[in-house]
Amino acid sequence: MITLITLTQGNPIALKRTIDNVIESFKGLVNQVVIGDLCVFEYDKEELSKILCECPNNSNIIDTKFNKLFEIGFGATLNRLSEFATNDLC
Question: Rounded to an integer, what distance in angstroms lies between the CA atom of residue 22 and that of residue 88?
Answer without folding.
Answer: 17
